[in-house]
């Protein structure tokens, strides 16, 4: 079993796309830092690694390689989906991290570009590119589960500001953010999916807290990568409402579409890298001739190739000017990759055996243990796998909704 040649592809790329790939490859050969080649990037890097990553992020920014899919007029490079896919593959080929501006680039940016006023775009987007503004997400709420439209956090107009009170949960990236993008109900009398506003909220104003308190939620790994968020009279100018007051649902759908399907064209790259690390583990442990192990590896490899083929299909659509079915692609991609990675980490822990149960000093996890724990949540955040299947059935295939059980009936 050998890794596929990245230069061999069934996609008939245009001359311009191939020229772009060559440009990126040449730039990486000149600029990729050797000390970052092949280095896994944990969710919370150690100080020395973080400093190296920050310097690499600055280099990418100076070269115009941050927020590359954004239009040129807003600081991006206006890259097509095909070009972004090729760029990601070249970074993987060079073995260096393809850093982004996180939620600001992948979730806030697309929503702002699609729905904001020109003034808002000019004000909101540049600090994301520079890294000055880092965002966390305030969508989910304790009482709503995956029913995003069931939110109860309130936003009330007070002169030129919106005053926000309520509670959010599963706020990822809170520990490094200085802004939050959140959904609030600004018209409680409106139908469920109306009367919602999409708001950008600074976590500090004039150097003082802006009514947002984070209470970390500790994962089974001992890490606290997300938190509950309590908003008490948090204030933001009405100029930070994107898409108009009470019109936030359609803006949120742009963000969710980016969250669920944004990396579908290149998802296989990370999985292939993870797979070959697992193969190395198998070789080190003398398990290469174990029939059961080989069957599990064969299953994992075939699933990665399904994910790769699906991504190539999306790239082919983009190359031919076909937009595809965004809603269906986002949901099917989310189901496929999240369920696959959960199973892959289970296989890894099984192959590692008793060593998988041993942690370092202070409950320090190794790479496989950390990925195993993280994968538990992947079928939940961004819309659970069950919710994604309902979206596909009801909103893509037009199937009737699942009937609610009669009141008092056993489920």
Secondary-structure topology with pairs:
Layout: H1 15-31, H2 47-62, H3 81-94, H4 102-115, H5 118-130, E1 135-138, E2 154-158, E3 161-172, E4 179-185, E5 196-202, E6 204-205, E7 208-209, E8 212-217, E9 226-237, E10 241-242, H6 248-261, H7 267-284, H8 291-319, H9 326-352, H10 367-375, H11 385-396
Parallel strand pairs: 1-4
Antiparallel strand pairs: 2-3, 3-9, 4-5, 5-10, 6-7, 8-9
Helix pairs in contact: 1-3, 4-5, 4-6, 6-9, 7-8, 7-9, 8-9, 9-10, 9-11
Protein name: Acyl-CoA dehydrogenase
Domain Acyl-CoA dehydrogenase/oxidase N-terminal: 19-132
GO molecular function: flavin adenine dinucleotide binding; oxidoreductase activity, acting on the CH-CH group of donors
How is this structure best described in words?
With 411 residues, the chain is an alpha+beta fold. The protein has three domains: 15-100, Butyryl-Coa Dehydrogenase, subunit A, domain 1; 135-248, Butyryl-CoA Dehydrogenase, subunit A, domain 2 (Beta Barrel); 262-396, Butyryl-CoA Dehydrogenase, subunit A, domain 3. 45% of the residues lie in helices and 14% in strands. It has eleven helices and ten strands. The strands form three sheets. The protein has a four-stranded mixed sheet with strand order 1-4-5-10. A hairpin with a 2-residue loop joins β2 (154-158) and β3. α6 (248-261) crosses α9 (326-352), α7 (267-284) packs antiparallel against α8 and α9 runs antiparallel to α11 (385-396). The longest helix has 29 residues, at 291-319. It is globular. It starts with 14 loop residues before the first helix and ends in a 15-residue tail after the last helix.
